[in-house]
Specification:
Rossmann fold, single chain, about 30% helix, 17 strands, Quinone Oxidoreductase, Chain A, domain 1
């Protein structure tokens, strides 16, 4: 079975690995059709991804076809096209018991803590499959990424008419923008890259964009009538950006840290208290949010085509992956085709 392994930073190799075998009870054997390349994959390739060990088969944003089901499986059948929920939770810890498996105390993620989808076939727990009768593999491969944005917006409890500042116009930030707009918020996008901001306007219809740097703070204040944002989402994973985000939060507002960094984040307490801010972390997504994303894609509320900018055949991936890691050619989201 053809497989691509990240042996160490900046070294992907193509190998022939063993077939996964027949599914056990509660499991499903699937054929991987698409893998969407995530920022996690790019950081792992470059050697600066947290919670990561080598060697590893990358790939957690997956579209698959069901080949065979194990005993007791009833939610999918052979031939079903599915998105994969890559979060392997324990089911018994305090978070899981509270219906929050996205932050399970012993969470493992496909392609990060255990081997992922850059291989032809794999076995996965049936409960981690989310089928769709309408969506093609490209859209299904984006479901997990979009669900991260949907979860972040849910954490913020956005109300119609809220002013939402989204810092970072990468794939996750774009997902946050899309679901913030669906919630009825007025969205402001802030990023260092003018081309990405143009993508926000053209692909997502974002109302306002601000180029990060000198004058950005003043521009955000102007766009919010001096009140600053009701909710700020930081999707950069940059400690400097995450710390600077506090200044954009208005009185009584909320800050949601969607990206994470292997660093300490500090803030100026008098500002934090004077504005009575609420600080929230957002991690992964819950199963119901993947279901919601699939419905939004099926109903046309979200257009999957607004994310995909690059493609690679499975056999060409090793050669082009360094360019993906450098985000050449205005890369937003790359899709790997295994079909």
């Amino acid at each position: 079975m053809k497989t691509i392994v990240l042996e160490e930073p900046e070294r992907l190799t193509a190998v022939e690995s063993e077939e996964p075998g027949a599914p056990a009870a509660g499991e499903v054997l699937v054929a991987v059709q698409r893998v969407a390349v995530c920022g996690t994959d790019l950081h792992a390739f470059l050697g600066d991804q947290t919670f990561f060990t080598y060697p590893r088969i990358l790939g957690h944003e997956l579209a698959v076809e069901v080949l065979e089901i194990g005993a007791g499986v009833s939610n999918v059948a052979p031939g079903d096209a599915c998105a994969v929920e890559p979060y392997l939770d324990c089911g018994g810890c305090v978070a899981c018991r509270a219906g929050r498996p996205n932050c399970c105390a012993s969470l493992r993620v496909l392609g990060v803590h255990v081997d992922g989808g850059l291989r032809e076939r794999m076995r996965v727990p049936a409960r981690k499959l989310h089928p769709s009768k309408k969506l093609g593999p490209d859209a299904l491969a984006l479901v997990e990424m979009l669900s991260v944005g949907a979860h972040a917006v849910g954490r913020a409890t956005l109300e119609p008419g809220s002013r939402a500042l989204v810092i970072g116009a990468g794939p996750i930030g774009l997902g946050v923008m899309a679901f913030a707009r669906l919630a009825g918020a007025e969205v402001i996008a802030l990023d260092v890259d003018p081309d990405r901001l143009e993508h926000c306007r053209g692909a997502l219809g974002v109302e306002h964009t601000v180029v990060a740097g000198e004058g950005a703070d003043t521009r955000v204040e102007q766009l919010t009538g001096g009140d600053r944002a009701d909710v700020v989402f930081d999707a950069t994973g940059s400690p400097a950006s995450m710390q600077a985000a506090f200044a954009h939060v208005g009185h009584g507002g909320r800050l949601v840290l969607v990206g994470h960094a292997n660093a300490e984040i500090t803030f100026f307490d008098p500002l934090f208290h004077a504005r009575e801010m609420t600080l929230l972390a957002s991690r992964n997504a819950r199963p119901d949010e993947l279901t919601r994303v699939i419905a939004a894609l099926e109903e046309g509320d979200i257009d999957a085509g607004g994310w995909i900018t690059h493609r690679a055949a499975f056999g060409d991936l090793i050669g082009v992956f360094p360019a993906f890691a450098r985000r050449e050619g205005g890369l937003i989201k790359a899709i790997v085709d295994l079909a």
